[in-house]
Amino acid sequence: MSLIEASAVSKIYRSGDVEFYALRDISLTIDVREFVAFVGPSGSGKSTLLNLIGCLDHPSSGRLTVMGTDVAALDRKASAHFRGENLGFVFQEFNLVPVLSAYENVEYPLLMVRGWAPEKRHAQVMKLLDAVGMAAQAHKRPDQLSGGQKQRVAVARALVSEPKLVLADEPTANLDHETAHKVIALMKQMRDDYGTTFVFSTHDPKIMQAAERTLMLEDGRLVKEVQA
Ligand code: ADP
Ligand code: MG
Question: What is the pTM of this model?
Answer without folding.
Answer: 0.92
